Amino acid sequence: MSEQQELQPVFSIEKIYVKDLSLEVPNAPQVYLEAAQPEIDMQLASEGKQIDDGFYEVALTVTVTAKLPEKTMFLCEVTEAGIFRIENVPVEDIEPILGVACPNILFPYARETVSNLVNRAGFPPVLLSPINFEALYMQQRAQQAEAGNA
């Protein structure tokens, strides 16, 4: 094998899995009698870490809460994770890969899991809109830079 082939960048998905799953319906069974449309709130968090030489785990947590004016209908939290092989990539490019590319891969899986879980709880499926992880990543970087300058 030539030296040039050995230094080719490597990015591959080794495994995608549900790391954590939680659903709460605190006001059941009365909440099922409600006719009002709930307000849906979604929160996202992702974290990436090296787990072995050339292997990284990225975990994307999606928290969806459905609330009526006086009570919570449900709270669903899904952590979808993946093991990614990343080799021969410049160190400065690792963080954007973990913060943008990997969450982009994981989000459709998390979205499907949330929808199925909420549906199994007896509610209409929640269809989450696509997320621009690059914009979120840039926003977080700007906030970190601002905090560092303060």
TrEMBL record:
GO cellular component: cytoplasm
Keyword field contains Cell division: no
Pfam families: SecB
Annotated compartments: Cytoplasm
UniProt keyword terms in alphabetical order: Chaperone, Cytoplasm, Protein transport, Translocation, Transport
Alphabetical GO biological process terms: protein folding; protein tetramerization; protein transport
Keyword Ion transport carried by entry: no
InterPro entries: SecB, SecB-like_sf
GO molecular function: unfolded protein binding
Family in the record: Belongs to the SecB family.
Subunit composition and interactions: Homotetramer, a dimer of dimers. One homotetramer interacts with 1 SecA dimer.
Function: One of the proteins required for the normal export of preproteins out of the cell cytoplasm. It is a molecular chaperone that binds to a subset of precursor proteins, maintaining them in a translocation-competent state. It also specifically binds to its receptor SecA.
Entry protein name: Protein-export protein SecB
